[in-house]
Amino acid sequence: MGSTKEPITVSRGGVIVPDIGEVLKRAKSLPPPTVYRSLHEYGASIHVMIKEKKMTHKEIAQWLCEQGIQCSATNISMAYQKWCALHPQESGDTP
User: Hey, which bits of the chain come out as E strands?
Assistant: First the structure.
């Protein structure tokens, strides 16, 4: 009687482990990674909304939430402060 099952691989510790080829196949089929962005990366957009559009932090947070970016007015304030510190010429914070 022939068996069509894959051979069982056992580690040194006696634990049954999956076939290396199967693990590789599963790894290749994983979805691409999720890209996480810091809110301050949207600083230029926040700057436009504050300076040109005269929006409040709460309004900006609401608008960004509608765009799929979860944040609060407090998050907007902190992110904008960080962006201004990193981009003083763009933010107008240079003497």
Answer: 9-10, 16-17
CB 88 within 8 A of CB 94: yes
Residues in Cβ contact with 83 at an 8 Å cutoff, skipping those fewer than 6 apart: 40, 43, 44, 46, 47, 91
Residue 3's SS3 state is coil
Please report how the helices 57-66 and 73-86 are oriented relative to each other, as an axis angle in degrees rounded to 10.
100
Sign of the CA dihedral with 77 first, then 94, 48, and 52 last? positive
Length of the chain equals: 95
Does 16 score more than 70 pLDDT? yes
| Residue range 67-89, pLDDT digits in tens | 999 999 999 999 999 999 999 98
